[in-house]
Design goal:
2 strands; 4% strand; mainly alpha; two-stranded antiparallel ribbon; 79% helix
Length: 95
């Protein structure tokens, strides 16, 4: 069972590596932010899998901290990137 969990952890780490290309290439800030969210989600999932495989409860605590940081990062991005348009309505930076 531990070998299977370690295999899943490796696959999740590979998704982070693939996500690095999206951060590098863009094309928009929203794409880069979504790739960063992929890092957060994959990192949390990897930590939870490793916590189960290695029987280390402290990794669950670290996963919780990463999940909270990922949520806060998204809120900060949206507050910084979204600006009201000339009509007073919110407009997406991607349009």
């Amino acid at each position: 069972m531990t070998a299977i969990l370690m295999g899943f952890a490796v696959v999740l780490l590979l998704t982070i590596i693939v996500g690095l290309t999206r951060v590098e290439r863009g094309p928009s800030p929203a794409d880069r932010m979504l790739a960063a969210q992929l890092f957060g989600t994959s990192g949390v999932a990897t930590l939870l899998i490793l916590a189960q495989a290695l029987e280390t409860p402290a990794l669950r605590d670290a996963a919780l901290v990463f999940a909270l940081l990922a949520a806060m990062t998204t809120v900060a991005f949206v507050k910084r990137a979204w600006h009201p348009g000339p009509s007073g309505k919110d407009e997406s930076p991607c349009q």
